[in-house]
Model the fold of this input.
Amino acid sequence: LPPLTPEELTLISQIAQTDESSLDSFLMTNLSNMPSHVILTLRNASEGTLPSYALTEEQGKHLETVGKALVTIMDTNLQAGRDLLKTFLSCGEIRKLDAAIGKAMKENKIDMAFFTV
Done:
């Protein structure tokens, strides 16, 4: 993985110092815009595996804090996706499936990407 830039480390430190609800809402809002190497670094940090390059102890703690929050959000989203898929698979007939997809669309549980796949 490429090392985090000083700007990314500063942003992660700022995020880690916010209250938990702000941390969660920021991550949920910006998850799709985060570079993959940042997500992987945070995920690894949540498991206690910090990058090999020089970090201060405080930066390491911030990476771990934000990483744990990110993993929680990703796990929640994954579980919601599994539950929705289970609902679709259990419909049984096409009209019930169509109704379930319409309901999920109205509740913003799926987006246009669902229909392109």
User: Anything to note?
Assistant: The mean pLDDT is 91. The first helix runs from residue 6 to 16. The radius of gyration is 18 Å.
